[in-house]
Every structure is written in structure tokens, then in C-alpha cells.
Amino acid sequence: MRFAFAGFDLWCGVFDAFVAAGWQPLAVFTMPVDNRQDFNEEVVARAQGHGVPVRMSAIRADDLRVLAEQGCEVLVVAGHAWRVPDWRAYLRHAVNFHPSPLPEGRGPYPLFRALLEARRAWAVSCHCLAPEFDAGEILAAEPVALSAEECHETFQLKLQLAAARLAGRVARDFAGLWQARRAQAAGSYWPRITDAERTLDFRRPVADNLRVARACGPHECIAPVLGGAPLYVRRAAGWAEPHAFEPGTIVHHYRRKLVVAARDGFVALLEWSALPAAARHGLGT
Fold it and tell me: What range defines the domain where residue 236 resides?
């Protein structure tokens, strides 16, 4: 079957799975990225390797019309930031791969909240592209098991593997899964994480603070230490230990490692910066 792909490097495995199943790519749509957390060089290289055009912009109705003229049968979306116009006037099928067990966890990036809530079971879903984000009929889902100490990086890698497995299943039995797709129930929408949600609270137990740090991972949590400006933390560790320090006090430092008192122990800030990531990126650091 002939398909167009819209996404970026995080979900390149979806593109690869369709190609491995014998599907023919016709075009790739991606988007400008920050090259800190998100990248598009691999998906661009895939397009160039197959000799198909790359658009670095939102999909327009004219793009859908051109795809229809080329005989495109399916638009496959995985991580495309922009809303896709109504495709039904141009294409027979359009699907999206979403990193949650739909209908739960609709929204732009549900990974943070799944980790903050210490979920132990998760999934990637493939659904029909609908006017409302992440609300179309479900074709299939692939389960993902999470550990009690899951971090953002391992969660993301597990989702990539699961998305590739799911894409392979969908590609091999697309007609059957499309025919059997089922409507979603009411579900839930999860907005982007707020600064308040990614801020450590040293008045709480060490375990709660480490869960926030693991959930944020390379996106960085915020550490409000006493007597100073907030710190932006990429990696932290900690342990329970009785003490008499006020929570939030920096009780020890060694080179760039800081130990901060929490309610029932200590949190070690192992990788941190005094500037948020966006400001550092603007300075070229």
C-alpha cells in the first residue's frame, strides 16, 4: 500500500515498520525541532533514502489533494504537532499513533503524568484520525509495562519499541483492523505538565521528589532550594535518613553535586543548572 508519513525522529520506528511490511512511502511531513529534546534528522534521512519529498510545515488541504492524485491510500501520523485538515475528501484512510491507552491520556504528551501517577500499565494506541485530537476510533493498541522506578528515558524507549510493534501489526492487517475499529468512550484529556507539577517539594518524602525527577528526566524538574534561586535538575537520587534540617536546605556539596534536606531524608541533585534549558540553549550551552 502507498502511504504518507507525518512525524519526527521519536517515532521513526512507525515509519520503518510500515516500510518493512512492504508499504511504499510517497511523502514525509515533519516539523521544525529544538534539537535538544526533539529531532527530525532521521526521518528526513528516511525520506531522502526513499527518494520522496519532505515538507517542514503543517499539512494543508493542497497536500492531501496531491497525495490523492499520487494514489496515496493511508496517511500515517506519529508525533505531528499540527492539526491535520479534514482528510476524508481526499484519502480513504488516516491513522494516528498516540502514546497512551486511549481513551485515557489524550493530549500532547501524556508521559509525564503517567509517571507522576506511578502507573504500572500503559499502552500505545493506533486510532483513526479525527477532527478532535486523539478521539478517533481505535484500530489496535500495544501494552507497555512500567516498573516502580521507571524514568522518563526508559519509558520513552519502551514506547518507541511498542509503537514499532503496533505499527507492524497494523501494517500487516490494515484492512481488517480498519474494518473492526471501535469508537472511544468518554476518556480523559491530559494537558501539558505545568511548572508547578514539575517542581520538587522538599516538605514531602524523598520518594515523592524522586518520582517527579524521574518523570521529568531530560526535560528537567525545578528544585526550590532555601536562600537561592530555583535550580533546574536533570538527574537526582536520594535516600531516607532522620535529620534535623529544614526541608529545602542545602546541607552538603561536592564539586557540582548538592545534597538537599527533604522531609524524611536527602535528595542529591546530581545534574543541574541555574538556568532553564531554553535559556541555556539560547546561549549555546
Answer: 206-282
